[in-house]
Amino acid sequence: MENRYDAVIIGGGILGTFHSFHAMELGLKVCLVEKDNYAKGATTQNFGQVVPSGMNSKWQKFGRESLRIYKEIQSQFDISIRQNGSVYLASNEEEERLLVELRGINNGNDYASKMLTKKECLDKYPGLRKDYVKAGLYFPEEVTVEPRTMIHKLQEYLVTQKGLEIKFNFPVISCETDGEWVSVKSSNNEEVFGKKVIICNGSDFKNLYPEIFASSDLEVSKLQMMQTKPQENYSLKGSILTGWSIRRYEAFHECPSFAQIKANETEDSLQKKWGVHILFKQAVDGSIILGDSHQYADAANMEDLGYDLDMDIDNFMIAEAQKIFDLPTYQIQNRWYGMYSQCKNSDIFQKTIDNNIHIVTGIGGKGMTGSAGFSKKNIAKIFNRQKINL
């Protein structure tokens, strides 16, 4: 019975790992399988911020539960969580109006935020240009993570402290059910059995169920990001989200003024063409992470996005960032892109096959912020456990 489990989770990214975590919290025997030698997909290639403030009301509930879970784990085991807060910086009166309206929404949701004057922003964030900022909205509960290391530390915690079994280098080639057990086989001739199997990885979904994948509404987004060289004698705390973030994030769609403000925007700008909004976050080595851009293609045609970095996009982002912060250096030491899948017409892709095989993927840019909270509710639903109010 050593290779039989209550749950077999396919995909070792943030979504699969937290599905494993919550299944174990219910007292279930769990095996997480990952096709590569370690997790290295979108979970490790994102910006590294946990910002429920940017989510709509439904997903903010998941994001806030994620914050609680992250902080609880961090209190027991270092997974790189740093609570330095997030701030949105308005560059004009329209964006300031959206901040005021969002603060009202969050007051109604009992989620802490604080309006900052121009002077308070300039005092709090060194190098911020006074000709850019007009006001800010600060969320003190929010955290940053180091995406290249966090998932590995989280899995180390689950293995050493919670007893999770992880099988790396386990490329799944089949999932077959006999009504009681689902057999999960790898290309290495390994086999595990699960009462329930949950597929949390888009590439495994595509390989196992190509027809369902082809008929899905999944699309892929390509995000370009950069890392400066370490900033000498310079400290920037938390996540810094700027005016274009205010005009982009889902939370602001619920603001009364949003539709009219968006209608006034120029449609043929490079910002719109490349889906750019400017973010800043300081890494542990003192460097600044800069982002990011968004280019889209149907998941079945993700090759259309190419495998190269577009230097025109990078140069545009640097030029725009320099209008916001005067950093000691804008020399770049690292450039990369991340790819994540999302749904065109829904929050996340979910489908059940033969009652016991559950596909859960396409969480998109909500992954780092929303996965921990969403997985808690989804695991309870799949295993028909007590209702979880989120």
Automatic annotation (TrEMBL):
<dbReference type="InterPro" id="IPR006076">
    <property type="entry name" value="FAD-dep_OxRdtase"/>
</dbReference>
<feature type="domain" description="FAD dependent oxidoreductase">
    <location>
        <begin position="6"/>
        <end position="375"/>
    </location>
</feature>
<keyword id="KW-0560">Oxidoreductase</keyword>
<dbReference type="Pfam" id="PF01266">
    <property type="entry name" value="DAO"/>
</dbReference>
<dbReference type="GO" id="GO:0005737">
    <property type="term" value="C:cytoplasm"/>
</dbReference>
<keyword id="KW-0285">Flavoprotein</keyword>
<dbReference type="InterPro" id="IPR036188">
    <property type="entry name" value="FAD/NAD-bd_sf"/>
</dbReference>
<protein>
    <submittedName>
        <fullName>FAD dependent oxidoreductase TIGR03364</fullName>
    </submittedName>
</protein>
<dbReference type="InterPro" id="IPR017741">
    <property type="entry name" value="FAD-dependent_OxRdtase_HpnW"/>
</dbReference>
<dbReference type="GO" id="GO:0016491">
    <property type="term" value="F:oxidoreductase activity"/>
</dbReference>
<comment type="similarity">
    <text>Belongs to the DadA oxidoreductase family.</text>
</comment>
